Amino acid sequence: MDLLLLSVSDVSMSVSARQKLETQAAENNIVKEELDLLDSSNTVFKLIGPVLVKQDLDEAKATVAKRLEYINGEIQRYETLLKDLEKKSEHQREVLTSLQQDFQKAQGLIAGKV
Fold first, then answer.
1. % helix / strand / coil in the chain, to the nearest 5?
2. What's the whole-number mean pLDDT along residues 72-93?
C-alpha cells in the first residue's frame, strides 16, 4: 500500500512541477515575442537584483532562447516521468486486483471447508 501512496505523491509533485514549467515557458515566449519586435536602435535592460542593467539585444534574445530550450527540455523530462509513473501505477493496480482475487478464492475455499 505504501508504494501506491508514494506513486500518488510523485504524480502530484510532477504535475505541479510541469505546470510551473509551462507557466515559465509561456512567460518566456511572451518575452521572446516582445524582443523579436525590437531592432538594434532599441535599448534593452535586464533586471539584476534591484538594478536595471543595459543588455545587448542579441544577448538578450540568446538568453531567452537558451532559457526556453532548457524549460522545454524539463517539460519533456516531466512528461516522460509522468508516463513512467502511470505505467507503474497500472502495474500496481493489476497486482492489487490479482491479490484481491486470490484472497477471495482463498476465502471461498475456507468457507467451503467449514
1. 80, 10, 10
2. 91
Chain-centre distance of CA 89, in angstroms?
A: 17
d(CA 45, CA 55) in angstroms, rounded, equals 5
pLDDT (0 to 100) of residue 29: 98
* Higher-confidence position of 23 and 9: 23
Closest among 28, 87, 91, 19 to 63, alpha carbons compared:
28
Query: Is the distance from CB of 58 to CB of 41 less than 8 angstroms?
Result: no
| Set of cell numbers at residue 47 | 533586471
Mean pLDDT (the chain, rounded): 90
**DSSP code, position 40:** T
Contact 64, 35 (CB under 8 A): yes
Q: How far is CA 28 from CA 43, 48, 69, 72, 73, in A?
A: 19, 17, 10, 11, 14
At 46-61, the pLDDT tens digits run 999 999 999 999 999 9
**Residue 104 reports pLDDT greater than 80:** yes
